[in-house]
Amino acid sequence: MTQATATLQYLHMAPRKVRLVADVIRGLSVNEAEAQLLYHARRAAKPLLKLLRSASANAKVKKMDMDRLIVSRITVDQGPMLKRSLPRAMGRATPLQKKMSHIVLTLEESARSTQVRFVMVKPEKAKKEEREHKAPKIPKTTAGANGAAGKEKSGFFKRIFNRKSV
């Protein structure tokens, strides 16, 4: 069977926290795993979603059947640790260990096609005309005798300095 893998190294997150999210998607189809990660509340879900999309792109390059792909293996290993210290009372210091993770995600074609339970709808991009921000039209005022008397203040100063006093 053909496999598509993607790796993520030096993720600044403790491996035991990432494993909680990785265990949720192990064995699921790519579509279901992506849906799980999109709505998962933990912080580790975002980099795992990016990794899953990278692995599915690798599978597309290998011309694998996207409907039959499942997350066959996902491993989360300990990376290097940054050792720091936190100053405490009476001149003491306590050690801090900033842990990192290495993640390997493997997609594999299953023998049978998985049933699609839902469809992931990607948001459409707005048209160029809708995206352009049009500047608001400023009403023209008639100038007085000296020309400056008829100018209106606009924006921030208009709101602040043209208030009625009580």
Report on this structure:
This protein is of the alpha+beta class and 166 residues long. It contains five helices and three strands; from the N terminus they run βαααββαα. It has a domain at 3-85 and 95-109: Ribosomal protein L22/L17 (Ribosomal Protein L22, Chain A), CATH 3.90.470.10. A three-stranded antiparallel β-sheet has the order 1-3-2, covered by helices on one side. α2 (30-38) runs antiparallel to α3 (45-61). The N and C termini lie far apart (80 Å). The mean pLDDT is 85.
Task: Please name the defining characteristics of this protein.
166 residues, alpha+beta, Ribosomal Protein L22, Chain A, three-stranded antiparallel sheet, 5 helices, 3 strands, flat
Largest sheet: 3 strands, antiparallel
Please tell me the CATH architecture of the domain at 3-85 and 95-109 by its name. Alpha-Beta Complex
Number of strands: 3
Strand order within the widest beta sheet: 1-3-2
Question: The CATH topology of the domain at 3-85 and 95-109 is what?
Answer: Ribosomal Protein L22, Chain A
Oligomer: single chain
Distance between the termini: 80 Å
How much is the radius of gyration in Å?
A: 28 Å
| Overall pLDDT confidence | 85
Q: Which bin fits the share of residues in helices?
A: 25-40%
Q: Number of helical runs?
A: 5
Look at the structure and give the CATH class of the domain at 3-85 and 95-109. Alpha Beta
